Amino acid sequence: MDAILVVNAGSSSVKFQVFAVRGDAGLDRLIKGELDGIGSRPRLRARDGNNKLLVDQTHPSESIPDVVTAMRIAGAWLKDSTAFELVAVGHRVVHGGPEYDRPVLVDRQILANLKRYVPLAPLHQPNNLAPIETLLERFPRLPQVACFDTAFHRGHSAVADHFAIPEQYYEEGVRRYGFHGLSYEYIAQRLREVAPSIARSRVIVAHLGSGASMCAMSDGHSVESTMGFTALDGLPMGTRSGQIDPGIILYLLTEKGMSPRAVQDFLYKKCGLSGMSGVSNDVRELLASTEPGAALALDYFVYRISLYAGMLAASLGGIDAFVFTAGIGERSPEMRARIARKLVWLGAEMDRVANAEGKSRISTDDSWVSLHVIPTDEELMIATHTLGVVQSHAAPAPQFARAG
Questions:
Q1: Where are the alpha helices (DSSP H) in 332-377?
Q2: Among 390, 398, 403, which residue's Cα sits nearest to residue 71?
Q3: What 3-state class would DSSP assign to 373?
Q4: Most C-beta atoms within 10 A of its C-beta, which of 133, 159, 246, 253?
Q5: How far apart are CA 361 and CA 197, in angstroms?
Q6: What would the pLDDT profile of 342-381 be if each residue is shown by its tens digit?
Q7: Residue 231 DSSP one-character state
Q8: How many other CB atoms are found less than 10 A from the CB of residue 89?
């Protein structure tokens, strides 16, 4: 059985999925797994396409200190426990820079190019690229495809794409990219199936998780995004600041004596909901907390979402639908309700029962703006792109027949 492995590597976890290639029938999810707690409490878990548990193993912290080791452990389990022919590996890569506006078959030169964008996504890019490099060394003929979170937004207008700085910096790649593009691309496609009447209209999608952003779409294409040059911009996130006055950066450097590296660490790891609340970066814990800081952080999160909804509606010239997705958007009826109350002025009216029951459409029948909850599936998007790239390149057969 031919199969595609999808890898989504983060700083403390490696998520992986395996899809069978069924010819004209498309892709069939065989395995969905994750090795998380890297460097602290490593745990390998995987389920099959019917949600049956296949493995649940804990490991000593020192045995899996990094992403490369995690990939080796997960690969060994796949090789020993499954029987399929791996024809390609697809990877989520957060930043494609100005060069890459679509998925690409990776070689050593492209890998070197992508390493240049590590400073623009220091939490993500190194971990995204580590498995690619490891597999290139071990299996140089195995096709690997990089799928970029920035690619979906590359059709923005020049006005939306620019900062108000000299043009030479734009030419060097200092521009507004936008992120979570694989998620938004999947939602755009899914809307054609679950809500065809609005799929070609003006839609705002809120990808709300530990990383959070919003995207304005018209006819299924990205028009504007809350994120810009890096994944720090826009909404406050679990540990990231979101939009911030550049003068604060100058203040931290000149008045507080912080080094650029310390400022980077501060903005990516010590701000957002965690820094503001002083409690947690997890919305579930903040909702359960009685600490004033927790309430303030959640109020701020909702407030900023509502402000950006207005901005994105302006970019579209109005709004016909609002979609919630990702961890918070899909699983927190309370946060959806709080946000929806801030969207009343746009013509959105939530159906409280439908929201509580987790329905796909959670707006009332007479709401001017329809509200939807659509689970995202970035991994399926990556697998689809990977299959397309490999088929278009007529890639050579891999060096090994089984997963590993």
A1: 333-341, 352-356
A2: 403
A3: strand
A4: 133
A5: 13
A6: 999 999 999 999 999 999 999 999 999 999 999 999 999 9
A7: T
A8: 24
- For 78, other C-beta atoms within 10 Å of its C-beta total 22
Q: How many residues does the chain have?
A: 404
Q: Which residue has the tokens 């910096």?
A: 169
**Any residues with CB less than 8 A from the CB of 368 and at least 6 apart, and which?**
346, 347, 348, 349
Burial of 317 (0-12, 13-18, 19+ CB in 10 A): exposed
Which one is predicted more confidently, 84 or 89?
89
CA-nearest of 386, 340, 90, 50 to 206 is 340
The mean pLDDT of 254-280, rounded to a whole number, is 95
> pLDDT tens across 216-255, in order?
999 999 999 999 999 999 999 999 999 999 999 999 999 9
Contacts for 187 with CB less than 8 Å, ≥ 6 apart: 205, 323, 325, 374, 376
Catalytically active residues are 149
The residue assigned the tokens 């190194």 is: 126
Structure-block tokens of residue 62 = 């020192």
- CA dihedral angle for residue 228, residue 168, residue 93, residue 207, rounded to 10 degrees: 10
Whether 18 and 382 have beta carbons less than 8 Å apart is answered as no
Encode pLDDT of 157-175 as tens digits: 999 999 999 999 999 999 9
Identity of residue 218: S
Q: Are 180 and 227 in contact (CB under 8 A)?
A: yes
Instruction: Please state, in angstroms and as integers, the Cα–Cα distance from residue 265 to each residue in 159, 211, 239, 246, 300, following that order.
Output: 31, 16, 10, 16, 22
- Beta-carbon contacts of 172 under 8 Å, excluding residues fewer than 6 positions away, are none
Q: Which residues contact 361 (CB under 8 A, 6 or more apart)?
A: 195, 351, 354, 370, 371, 372
Cβ pair 129, 116 in contact under 8 A: no
Which tokens hold the place of 304?
């900023």
Distances (CA, A) of 78 to 17, 44, 47, 84: 10, 11, 12, 9
Whether residue 35 contacts residue 70, with contact meaning beta carbons closer than 8 Å, is answered with yes
User: Within 10 Å of residue 113's Cβ, how many Cβ atoms?
Assistant: 16
Triad 373, 210, 32: Cα angle to 5°: 70
Question: Are 220 and 156 in contact, with CB atoms under 8 Å apart?
Answer: no
User: CA separation (Å) from 36 to 42, 207, 266, 383?
Assistant: 6, 22, 23, 21
